[in-house]
Amino acid sequence: MLYLRRTLVLWGTLFSFFAGAQENTDNRYAEPLVQVIRNIETRYGVAVRYPDSLVKDKVLNYARWRFRPDVEETLSNVLAPFDLKAKKEGNKKYKISNYEYYRWAVEDGWAELDRIAAQYKNVTEWEARKKELKQCLLAKLQLSKLPSWPDSKPIITPLRKYNGYTVENIALEILPGVWINGSLYKPAKHKGRVPVILNPDGHWPQQRYRPDCQLRCAAFAKMGAMAFSYDLFAWGESLLQFKPEDHRRSLAMTIQALGAIRILDYLLALKDADTARVGITGGSGGGSHTVLMTAIDDRIKVSAPVVAVSSYFYGGCPCESGMDIHSCAGGTDNVEIAAMAAPRPQLLVSDGGDWTDKMPEHDFPYLQKMYSWYGKRTQVQNVHLPAETHDFGISKRIAVYHFMAQYLGLNIKAIEDKQGHIDESGITVEEEKKLYVFGDHGEQLPARAVKGFDNLQKVFEAAVK
Predict the structure, then answer these.
(1) Boundary of a domain, candidates 98, 133, 151
(2) Which UniProt keywords apply (predicted)?
(3) What is the pLDDT of residues 323-364, one digit of tens each?
(4) Cβ contact 309:356 at 8 Å
């Protein structure tokens, strides 16, 4: 009761202070943020929308001194001390949200890419920077020296046979008690070695169980490749070990990269894998992962990041930008990291409904220049779909199918109809549970499985010592 009385007295004092006290330097001209916002609405004739949780109990020092003739400059001055920002939603309408470190103004992103590009004038200088970048990327991910790979056999489910392809689910132990899970799609019949294509999942509902993900991987298999679709960290079956919020921890970025490296280790050791024909494609967060993996792993020969790459967007999830990779070599961005693929073939699919909306205008010409230094300008391509939005829909898949067929030697006719159009109708979309490795309810997860993020950190720290 004493604590409650003191609390009430404190808030009463503060209320009286703000309600009746004259603002001056002694109190740093302080005002409750909610009152400052009301003053902005009155002064500039605007409406400002916000969740109460963002402004509750916040007090702004030197409040009235932050006002300027321009309402947007005023909002920026008022909100910046709290890591908040205002976005215009319509005529005289604004919405307050958390500051997004990863989202820049277009002109700022372009200027930063220009600053970065000015540091090298030829392929020799670029190769030196690329080497520096790669070493730094691995160091920031804490993967300069890979942790030992547990000496355990992969967990593999029975093979499922479909029209022109097969599917089996596989879990690989990448750290003691930590598994990465996925499904391997392979041609029903093939001779000799076949290409390998990694398919990391993006930030869409249903994770890798989505129909579009299954359609893509099965199509690759019908075309003659083995395609591995896998969970991001703390997504899909990884949730048997970790909580959804753990996906937004910075270490997620590292665990995902380590997982992809171990997937490649496993797949490329298979007798029917062609180590000279290795591709990767993913959308959204899976696209950021595609770019990063291509930059740090030379075994990847062809890449296709979808709705991901932009000079003014660094990746909105810690699994994309949580580790400090963008400080490497005095500062880099995702477009320069994408350029590290050169001269290996790369397709960038962009659209008009997200941060890739201006890819053809500035970022893609930079990539063309970088590829031209190797005499391979045509090996970087951009399919821009201005009327489309942020997804991995059929138009985007078609672009990726043709690109992978071109550079991995796949049979595109295997998924075409008599008129030469892409036809996915012969592919079976499985129910989610059929794609599980550990049983319908996770009952087959090994007893020694690590659970909880704190325990993962301990395991990882011990592994990289």
Answers:
(1) 98
(2) Signal
(3) 999 999 999 999 999 999 999 999 999 999 999 999 999 999
(4) yes
Query: How would you class 12 by CB atoms within 10 Å of its CB: exposed for 0-12, middle for 13-18, buried for 19 or more?
Result: exposed
What is the DSSP annotation of 181-201? Answer: EEEEEEESS--S-EEEEEEE-
CATH number at residue 166: 3.40.50.1820
Q: What is the mean pLDDT of the chain?
A: 94
User: Virtual CA dihedral for 286, 291, 295, 300, nearest 10 degrees?
Assistant: 70
- pTM, two decimals, is 0.91
> What is the DSSP-derived secondary structure letter of residue 28?
T
Residue from 382, 142, 353, 150 nearest 256 by CA: 142
Per-residue pLDDT tens over the stretch 57-83 = 999 999 999 999 999 999 999 999 999
Domain that holds residue 34: 2-98
Prior bond of 305 cis (ω within 30°): no
Tally of CB atoms within 10 A around 8: 10
Looking at residue 21, what is its pLDDT? 59
Distance CA 213, CA 221 (A): 13
Residue 16 has pLDDT above 70, yes or no: no
Residues 302 and 175 in one domain: yes
Q: Are residues 146 and 52 in the same domain?
A: no
- pLDDT score recorded for residue 6: 45
Q: What is the mean pLDDT of residues 252-263?
A: 97
117 is a domain residue: no
